[in-house]
Amino acid sequence: MPTMADVARGAGVSVATVSHVLNGTRPVLAHTRQAVLDAVEELGYTHNTLARSLVTSRTRSIGLAVSAISNPYFTEILQGVEAAALQHGYGLLIADPHDDPAHERKVVQLLHERRVDGMIVAPSADPRELLAYLARHAVPTVLLDRVIDGLGDNAPRFDQVCAENTGPTARLVAHLAGLGHRRIGLVAGLTGLSTTSERVTGYRQGLAAAGLPLDDALVVPGNSESAGAGRATAALMALDAPPTALVTANNAMTIGALRALREQGLSVPDDIALCCFDDFAWADLFSPRLTAVAQPGREIGAEAVRVLLERLATPDRAPRTVRLPCAFVHRTSCGCQEEDGRAAAAVRARAGQSDQSEYPEEGTSRDRRRR
């Protein structure tokens, strides 16, 4: 079996240089690094990660605990985490906490027992046990897609990476209000998640900016999943004065809401307009095409890795929260004609304007009879 010394001879460099290339412990000239990698490939050298971890107390592995891995949004985050981890020479161990606080605590402990160098975790709605465990064991951790605060002055603080939630949700409401809607419903997420509370806040801000009153009956929790959103949508449409437009607060709930509307014989957008938080690959294939807020899933995952590696390099620095911007994707489920939406986008592009303006007026309504 070839050794590191064999690789050094094959590349014409020192054993120390080979070590720096394989472990990423010091910058190496590009041509030297390539010579080492070519020698590794030619000789079939296998780096003994376990032996190195016994010496350095590092395994060059990251634990990722994320619920609903099948969700397209979290799939994109996973892809971003994996690509960034591999780029920096780290492997990935993945666990699904199932949004259950007790199970969350167990899977994080299992990842920790496998001696990962750090963790990226999307906390549940009740993360107290999780945070206490991470703090007690001083596990370098980045919280993903959640912002944890309000747990008291003595609560441990962690690095956090997430998307903007409040402003983009207000943007959806403003768009619907600009189309003439006065009763706009919200199918909200799981109570206790920061994403839920921030999107509800954005909904309220959007109403206030449009001069519309807040009606608590128009906000119904869909529990961040399809079945719950179906029940929430049915409850909203059963009101004496049902909404003429809906905002759904994640992609799974969008599917549930569309299913519930179809079961009631209602057409989007002719009978009710719809905008959703979370874009996904097939949103453009629906009829009508879904107007949505698109989160930068891969960028969020990659940024979480970068922040974690910074934490590993400088353990004593102050925790920080990184928020990434979202994009407003204008399609037709809001009631705008296809050509109007495209024309408005073209006008903004010619004017050098962003498609994330605070108070859009693009598009026209197909049906204002119930507004």
- The global form is elongated
Number of strands: 12
Radius of gyration in whole Å, from Cα?
25 Å
| Mean of residue pLDDT values | 85
Description:
- With 371 residues, the chain is of the alpha/beta class.
- It has 13 helices and twelve strands.
- The strands form two sheets. It has a six-stranded parallel β-sheet with strand order 2-1-3-4-5-11, with helices on both faces. It has a six-stranded mixed β-sheet with strand order 7-6-8-9-10-12, with helices on both faces.
- Strand 8, helix 11 and strand 9 form a beta-alpha-beta unit.
- Helix 5 crosses helix 12 and helix 8 runs parallel beside helix 9.
- It is elongated and about 80 Å long.
Q: Keywords, please?
A:
13 helices; disordered C terminus; 12 strands; alpha/beta; 14% strand; 371 residues
Question: Gist?
Answer:
It contains 13 helices and twelve strands. With 371 residues, it is an alpha/beta fold.
Topology of this structure?
Layout: H1 4-11, H2 15-23, H3 30-43, H4 49-56, E1 61-65, H5 72-87, E2 91-95, H6 101-113, E3 118-121, H7 128-136, E4 141-144, E5 159-163, H8 166-178, E6 184-188, H9 194-209, E7 219-221, H10 226-237, E8 245-248, H11 251-263, E9 273-277, E10 291-294, H12 297-313, E11 321-324, E12 327-329, H13 338-350
Parallel strand pairs: 1-2, 1-3, 3-4, 4-5, 5-11, 6-7, 6-8, 8-9, 9-10
Antiparallel strand pairs: 10-12
Helix pairs in contact: 1-2, 1-3, 5-12, 6-7, 8-9, 10-11
